[in-house]
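Contributing new records

If you add data, match the layout below exactly. Sequence lines come first and carry their own label; structure lines follow with theirs. Keep one chain per record. Anything else will be rejected by the validation script.
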Amino acid sequence: MKIALGQINPTVGDFSGNAAKMIDFSRRAQADGAGLILFPELSVCGYPPRDLVERPSFVARNRETAEQIAAATRGIAVICGLVTPAESETGKAVMNSAALLQDGKIAFLQSKMLLPTYDVFDEMRNFAPAKSQSLFPFCGNQVALTICEDAWNDKLFWPKRLYTVDPIEALIRSGGNFVLNISASPFWIGKRELRRDMLASIARQHKVPVAMVNQVGGNDSLLFDGSSIVLNPEGNIIAQGRSFEEDLIYFDSKTLTGDLHEQIEGEEASVYSALVLGTRDYMRKCGFQKAIIGLSGGIDSALTAVIAADAVGAENVIGVGMPGPYSSRGSIDDARALARNLGIRFELLSINAAVDAYRQTLQDVFAGRKEDVTEENIQSRARGTLLMALSNKFGAIVLSTGNKSELGVGYCTLYGDMVGGLAVISDVPKTLVYRLSRYANSRRDVIPRDTLEKPPSAELRPDQKDSDSLPPYEVLDAVLEDYVEDAHSAGRIAADRGFDIDVVKRVVRMVDRAEYKRQQAAPGIKISSKAFGYGRRFPIAAKSEV
């Protein structure tokens, strides 16, 4: 049988929109001769729905919508993900389920058994796990229908398993000979390769074909890359979907041949595409048409502006230069040149009068005290106030421009450069910011050379450089990777990297002390294995011992 994978971009809670998309993809697949189409995990309601599943009306809409899709797709079988009642006296009230829609009705239901609780996942909070799973016959096969994490516990692949049961192993032992997996598997650097290798291991171990359809698109901080794949029993890829865009691909369940669509390869190209898609979807799904970005003439705001222009169009991006007492002429010129190269609207608003007003208001209460970071932060907060005023007046979202290195050590100002509705590059270390900027320029030369080459500076005091306050970014980013993503101790980092232990301890203390800032930051787009945000939950009021 010809089987289709409907790699779609659903919106959480948009039942009518998600249903229309699935009906459209199903009819296209049927017209192309497919007898079955798979859609991603919780495709009916969108993933992750989080605490929306606690609303009875939300749960009821899942069933109603699935029945509507079934009625509209007669002639092709459809597998989709939805929330269903748990119908048990104890435990959570709902389950994460997959439905087979056939002949105008729900013909089969299977619920997720393994509910992840690590990193960004908290499914045990919302769902009850399935106590058992069963096969269903389809086109001469005994189909093992699984949902995302159900496939992530292969004892031959993982050095340490998270669960005591392996749903796929149990289903194969019961006679299953074809594995179908519907997923909402988020992207991070290296995730596509890991997912591909894991599924290939399952195919080879059990000597069965494995087909996985994955969600694509951004939902809040999570970015889903798609990259749906089908593997033969030897673990070879026989069909694959594109990365970072919706796609419809086909494979033949008998000959095990199918469509091989090109994927975006390379770290810089993949991360850049992820950030563009994440920005576009966050804005679109939150109802914003236009974006506002403070352009300092520096590399971070330049990259953010390039991403925004690619995401929503240059005509929908406003760049704002806000020179202050210590802004260099070159930085203003670089900001203006970037805006001109991108074709975005540019406004120049001096903060000098606002800063002077703050100083005059505070001069008596500050009498006798030296200038310090207080006056630096006043400048940053004056800029933040202007950006939010423009946001209110024009109904546009402010995109903050801080990177992961700054956010990690608190080298940022609350209610200043941290203001905004989305922190586009908050999971991008400074060294990667430079690599992405060069990649962006390789596609179209838009970021001025001076922006790429001058030493980074916040320009909040005379001749200020980032290196005055921070270790070199090559050192800082390496320490942050080891401490934040791998949870290594300061001693181990210093020994493994050959860094000065005092430098490492200083960075670790800065990370721990800045937790209160990060928990007030705008959501960012996750592209690393461990991003700041709800996937990294640390207390604010805690003692740091390094």
